[in-house]
Amino acid sequence: MKYKDYYAVMGVGRDxxxxxxxxxxxxxxxxxxxxxxxxxxxxxxxxxxGEAYEVLKDPExxxxxxxxxxxxxxxxxxxxxxxxxxxxxxHGGDFTGADAEQFSDFFGNLFGRGGFGGAxxxxxxxxxxxxxxxxAKVLIDLEDAYHGATRTITLKHSETGVNGRPxxxxxxxxxxxxxxxxxxxxxRLKNQGAAGTGSGENGDLYLEVDFRPHRIYxxxxxxxxxxxxxxxxxxxxxxxxxxxxPSGAVELKIPPNSSSGRKLxxxxxxxxxxxxxxxxxxxxxxLPKADTDGARAxxxxxxxxxxxxxxxxLEV
Length: 316
Known about the structure:
- By secondary structure, the protein is α+β, with helices and mostly antiparallel strands.
- The protein has 8 helices and 14 strands.
- It has a 4-stranded mixed beta sheet. It has a 4-stranded mixed beta sheet with strand order 9-10-14-13. Strands 2-3 form a two-stranded antiparallel sheet.
- It is extended.
- It starts with 5 loop residues before the first helix and ends in an 11-residue tail after the last helix.
């Protein structure tokens, strides 16, 4: 994925005010509008300008984008860090209210592609307006999904300051993480969204759950995976080994003649949702080093004892 410098696209500096960004957009939109422009790449440039403006016109998305830092260059290979935008609070049903499908993969990876689909709306009765729902990502530990937890989180939202630049504000909440929560699920905090007007109630806050990268586990949906290192003799002869799981260690049978990459099922040991997920131990055969006379002699004897040829399928 290639990094997009939205400030360069708009032709403004990173310290531009919101009014300056708006003026730049109007100028560029007129210049590259496909119905009037004679530029050969007008349609592509028009979409590019629209994407940049979608981010920079919104103080919240702009402040989040600015968190990536100023050291990136347009076209540079880029991957957002796992904790990018953690706790950033966005107004509306999702990270963007625009038709994000028309935007680049860079935009989609940062701000999503309409996950809520506009399901949450503002209700008006007279002069009393319900506050907007807000949306933020929160990172939790995998173990929290197994046991449940209460976590203190800090949410950041942006407001336009007196200088026309977005200013980040913070607030702290105690959040209960329910047992069985999965990646991509949303925790709803009633009335913790934007304030209503008049006697209108506050909107709700939706926290989209993601897991922090784990030292030994990976997650796919409800299922959890562990790379399990075994010795050549354990894989060949079979054995029982103690295996860690997020809910406690268990004993796992390694069948004889197991090969590297074999998946061994620990049924029901995945995320305890309804139904619960499974856990898979993926075997990796670890070879001892031949770094002593004894080890080299053992390898030589093993070579004599078998005619094994791992490249036999390549023979012609």
